Automatic annotation (TrEMBL):
Signal sequence interval, chain numbering: 1-18
Subcellular location: Cell outer membrane
Matches recorded under PROSITE patterns: OMPA_1 (PS01068), OMPA_2 (PS51123)
Domain OmpA-like: 606-727
Alphabetized InterPro entries for the sequence: Bact_OuterMem_StrucFunc, DUF5723, OMP_bac, OmpA-like, OMPA-like_CS, OmpA-like_sf, Thrombospondin_3-like_rpt, TSP_type-3_rpt
Protein name, UniProt field: Flagellar motor protein MotB
MF terms (GO), sorted A to Z: calcium ion binding
Gene Ontology biological process: cell adhesion
GO annotation, cellular component aspect: cell outer membrane
SUPFAM superfamilies: OmpA-like, TSP type-3 repeat
Alphabetical keyword list: Cell outer membrane, Cell projection, Cilium, Flagellum, Membrane, Signal
Amino acid sequence: MKKQLLILLTLSSFVAQAQSYSGYFHDNYAGVQSVLFNPASIADSRFKTDINLFSVSSAVSNDLYGVKLFDVYKDGYDFDSQSKMTPSNANNALINLDIMGPSFMFNIAPKHTLALFTRARSITNLRDVNGSLIDQVKDGLDQASGFGPINAGSPNGAAHAWGELGLSYAAVLLNKNQHFLKGGLTAKYLQGVGNAYIQGKNASASLQEDTNNPENSKLFTTGEMIIGGSQDWEANEDYEFDINSSGIGFDFGFVYEWRPDYAKYDLNNAKPADNNFRDLNKYKLRFGLSVTDIGSINYKKSKQDIYDISGELTQEMIDDTDNLYDLLNDRYTKTSTSKGVKTNLPTALHADVDWNIHNKFYLNLNGDISMVSNSKLNAVNIADRVSLTPRYESRWFSFYVPVTWMEYSGTQIGTGLRVGTFFVGSGSIVSNLVSKESKAADFYVGLKIPVYQKKFKDRDQDGVIDKQDSCKKVAGPIENKGCPWPDTDGDKVLDKDDACPDVAGPVENKGCPWKDTDGDTLLDNVDACPTVSGPVENKGCPWPDTDGDTVLDKDDACPDVAGLVENKGCPVLDTDKDGVADNVDDCPLIAGPAANKGCPEVNKAALAQLQVEAKSIFFTSGKATLSDAKKVETSGRLDAIKEILKNYPNAKFAVYGHTDNVGNDKVNQKLSEERAKVIMDALIEKGVNPANLTSQGFGATKPVKSNKTAAGRAENRRTEIVYLGNF
């Protein structure tokens, strides 16, 4: 069994990324393939139906060996010497093969879509394998140099192959203005094909080298090993298919689309030729979130063994043993055996953001996160991944360049395209063409039959699509199979709507000429009273007198209430109820005695308040400008004066200005006049009727105190508001 011991270690040389169809599956024309990553994606699809004939996706990558990929296929290539190793204490690996068989999706209603698919899958994982130990013994124990204890930790490996029969349902959940949400669910019947796994517990190894006889070099190992699978591989190395090894799986997901131009796609405004805009992209941003591969397969004939691997090995022991189970049973101690195991699916969370940059150009950011623990026994999972993919997308052609960071294998650049029924691509082809240390390779290819949603033809744009239009080049109504209706009398009223098809008449009279039934020169179409004669000015109707006050409604200012002719048919009112009718009341809104023409008389209290407010208005010393320092107070005083004056709309008031005797008499006279006018103008600006106000200045001619004292002079510098009488 040459190097059989290294089976546990060198499988890490082969790894596959669990992401299938890199760059392709976010294309809006990915069709039924997109359901594998988010069941919601097929709702509101660009396809009437999409049929996958056959497609396959596979990928290989690792974090231990790097090679110049295309040199591997050349004659004479020596993998051990020409590859570059990057050993660590925890190297990782996984292998993925994804084959999609006959599958299809179709819209069962405008908002509902179904998909049915068949799929065969295989994933192999090796995790936390000590790469340094592999490097030491890769050529055999007889070629290795002695080394001290190497902690192998808990290496963990599993391989699983199974088939799926899936049924997906997706529906539009919300379509409101710019917000669009759809959801989807997939239920899968799982048929197990085969499963094998191995896991170490606290393993370590050291090599005691025999320089004189290298074949006697001894590898000392410690720890525990768990090995098992879907059948008893120890008893029978031949594969046995078990139809009873089955399970159920689920996927679910949601897609939100932001549609800022939603008004363009309002179905209420859609024409038949628009086909409900099903052929168009309507989003600016799309957000997707899904969880896939929830479930497991129950292998009823499975067997699991646990071995204590404390002991020693030589290369001769390895070479003389036929298989791994013989080696374990011959050299180590089996501590337990059990049967029956469930093997999980590689449950993962997927998220993506798709940006429609402009027209047919897009940028997609997506990522996958494994939801299965790396330390779980018999666990298969995907590698975490983030990918940025610019793409050009149209109905018959798409091109994309994915740039991907993948757990274990690092950053890769690939490309892919879709041409009608065929698509092909790789997430790492560009990197592998230039890299001398490739740790990844992948490809996908597929053949399908797409049946696209499309806009219907309507050459005459009459709302009847060509395939239903009997007059494809001449517009006509749908009731007449797209052909125009005849108009025999040429009055623009079609015969089907014309009550007088042989005599021209207006549209509003159903194609018949108008009559004048009451003979008042107004045709019935404009006569409001077609059977009763009336003047043209009243649209052919006699003038009414609704309130019977002999004033016709057309001249009556109060047509529903009897009144006097001299008051335009309205009764005399007394709005303020002061006993003075409004028509002779100078103040109809404010009560006052008849002797004062219905206006209130100015009372002593109001005059006293006016004097208080007027005396408290301050000017800049020696000037006719209001004091800035007292601006707020002055404004309040003016407001108070205004409120008093508005109560006497028929009263005449004067604003008087006075000064002390200091200075020139002419200057004082002018200053008093200007100050009085400033206050009058300020009151008018605040809303006082100019007709109610005058202003006058008296200089120092009317002192109220002696000008011999400062206090007296201050009293003499004043403004007053005086009641002059009524209009």
